[in-house]
Write a structure and sequence with these properties.
Chain lengths: 110, 126
């Protein structure tokens, strides 16, 4: 069981907006540690999508955005495209002195 | 563009030690933290630990490990070879996973992983 909780799956039609939640606690997200997001295509390594809650690395489209509030964070994807179909993971740090990940969310583009 | 490549045996016997090396190219290995992260088939990601690489030998080799794995993990770095390594002792089938190496990027709270290797599958089986 992951320290950070994500929905196992979300889905949306092309062009729609979807959000993926990441719920933590007072020892990780709620303690002020940043949340980061990764996208993982099947059989490949995770790729950084959002860092420090809201920032996009160079090359990541502005269709992807992140937010954080209290003990939770969210990843929003607008203008959904077929190539967005992947697994998405959130990551933070925990006061137990460890990096923690969410269990991952599989995004299906209908 | 920084590139990372994992290497090592793909099959390890139970109770033995898993050993992997990550080679860094396209950028400096010095003055960065480097991490190992693993992913069992069909499951999520688990952070194993991180190690600091520095040209100053007083600081190079500083480590932080996941408390759940600390008793079995050893990481090392060879700056001259642009490599860092992972050893995980007393392995069981539960340690079967794809092992990724990654570069650590620091943030105000706390750190994340900006470049990843492609991953190396390690199977624990007799």
């Amino acid at each position: 069981q992951s320290v950070l909780t994500q929905p196992p799956s979300v889905s949306g039609a092309p062009g729609q907006r979807v959000t993926i939640s990441c719920t933590g606690s007072s020892s990780n997200i709620g303690a002020g540690y940043d949340v980061h997001w990764y996208r993982q295509l099947p059989g490949t390594a995770p790729k950084l999508l959002i860092y420090s809650n809201t920032n996009r690395p160079s090359g990541v489209p502005d269709r992807f955005s992140g937010s954080k509030s209290g003990t939770s964070a969210s990843l929003a994807i607008t203008g959904l495209q077929a190539e967005d179909e992947a697994d998405y993971y959130c990551q933070s740090y925990d006061s137990s002195l460890s990096v923690v990940f969410g269990g991952g969310t599989k995004l299906t583009v209908l | 563009q920084v590139q990372l490549q994992e290497s090592g045996p793909g099959l390890v016997k139970p109770s033995e030690t898993l050993s992997l090396t990550c080679t860094v190219s396209g950028g400096s290995i010095s003055n960065y933290f480097w991490s190992w992260i693993r992913q069992p088939a069909g499951k999520g990601l688990e952070w194993i630990g991180r190690i600091y690489s520095s040209e100053d030998t007083n600081y190079s080799g500083s480590t932080n490990y996941n408390p759940s794995l600390r008793s079995r993990v050893t990481m090392s770095v060879d700056t001259s070879k642009r490599q860092f390594s992972l050893k995980l002792s007393s392995v069981t089938a539960a340690d079967t996973a794809v092992y990724f190496c990654a570069r650590v990027a620091l943030s105000s709270g706390f750190f994340y992983f900006d470049f990843w290797g492609q991953g190396a599958l390690v199977t624990v089986s007799s």
